[in-house]
Design a protein that fits this description.
- With 294 residues, the protein is of the alpha+beta class.
- The protein folds into 2 domains: 88 residues, Phosphorylase Kinase, domain 1; 154 residues, ATP-grasp fold, B domain (D-amino Acid Aminotransferase, Chain A, domain 1), CATH 3.30.470.
- It is built from 7 helices and 16 strands.
- Strands 8, 9, 12, 13, 14, 15 and 16 form a 7-stranded antiparallel sheet that branches. A 5-stranded antiparallel sheet has the order 1-2-3-7-6.
- Helix 4 crosses helix 5.
- The longest helix is centred in the middle third of the chain and has 23 residues.
- It is globular.
- The chain starts with 15 loop residues before the first strand and ends with a helix.
- The structure holds adenosine-5'-triphosphate (ATP) and magnesium ion.
- Magnesium ion binds next to loops.
Length: 294
């Protein structure tokens, strides 16, 4: 099956096109979010997609949105059979990969929780001994477990790379109360997911959430605990000091590190075997999460 990387219908134009999702209009309070099969890494979208990836991401997010009952989320309708026209005419674009959500005033910070040190966190720790202003113990090894979950927010840059910031930047922008709520909620959802996934032999190393204001109330939006937003490691193969075996985008990043692509120019297409392997990893994590949550 061909990957779905572009969605166009004659009746309406998308309001916005992100790296992975396209947003379509519903009414003044609602919109439709459709997850395409596009894949991005290092903030670049690849010309080819991963077949079914959008369906996998949407399915995983919806399972978590249903399960997490201690914070409100943006979902209004996840069943394609209840979608209005013109979307109902196009199951090939919207079935199993779209949701109708509450439009919120997005909070322009990525809310990241980390239980392990890896990725941009590892880089920053090697340079400074801290991540997003959180001081960490000396002598941590790559992929080591942290003594406790840390909150390491980042800016949501419209262009260019997201940048890790300290919580003080959030406090300046959102106030003490909302910044503390976001920190506590981010850690709470991460630890909730981490504890559940442990029973499936998965280590949830880190994850990123987005939140928005819905009539002044902070709600969970976008995607939740998916392989695009999280690092899932195979617990049985975990060994600090080594790059972990993962069920997420890390496979693509590791592959890209072996290519001459400079991460600063339009990327070349991903080779077919990398596409297939990534698809398998996403399918595997979906199967594990579905078994756990449904
Ligand atoms: N309920 C919501 N209210 C407002 N914005 C939302 C909501 N849910 C998701 N979004 C936004 O919709 C977009 C989804 O697109 P996608 O995930 O592809 O974006 P991205 O490329 O990851 O990030 P961005 O385009 O924001 O840099 C994001 O900008 C996300 O912040
Ligand atoms: Mg996103």
């Amino acid at each position: 099956m061909n990957p779905l990387t572009k969605i166009e219908i004659p009746e309406v134009k998308a309001i916005y096109s992100g790296k992975v999702r396209d947003l379509f209009p519903i009414d003044s309070e609602h919109m439709l979010i459709v997850s395409t099969d596009r894949i991005s890494a290092f903030d670049h979208i690849f010309p080819n997609g991963i077949p079914q990836k959008g369906i996998i991401l949407n399915t995983i997010s919806n399972l978590w949105f249903k399960k997490i009952d201690f914070i409100k989320n943006h979902i209004v309708e996840a069943n394609f059979n209840n979608f209005p026209a013109p979307y109902s005419k196009y199951p090939e674009f919207f079935k199993d990969r779209a949701v109708i959500v509450k439009k919120t005033k997005r909070i322009d910070f990525e809310c990241v929780a980390r239980g392990y040190i890896i990725g941009s966190g590892w880089k920053e720790y090697k340079d400074k001994g801290s991540v997003s202003g959180v001081k960490l113990p000396d002598n941590l090894k790559l992929a080591d477990k942290l003594p406790e979950t840390i909150f390491t927010p980042a800016t949501k840059a419209d262009t260019g790379h997201d940048e890790n910031i300290s919580i003080d930047v959030m406090i300046d922008s959102l106030g003490q109360r909302d910044a503390a709520f976001l920190r506590d909620m981010t850690i709470k959802i991460y630890e909730y997911g981490r504890d559940l996934l442990k029973d499936a032999g998965i280590i949830l190393a880190d994850t990123k959430f987005e939140f928005g204001y819905d009539n002044g109330e902070i709600v969970l939006i976008d995607e939740v605990l998916t392989p695009d937003s999280s690092r899932f490691w195979d617990a049985s193969l975990y060994s600090p000091g080594k790059s972990p075996v993962s069920y997420d985008k890390q496979f693509i990043r590791d592959y890209l590190d072996t290519t001459p692509w400079d991460k600063n120019s339009p990327p070349p297409p991903l080779p077919e075997d990398i596409v297939q392997k990534t698809k398998e990893k996403y399918e595997e994590i979906l199967a594990k999460i579905a078994k756990l949550l449904s």
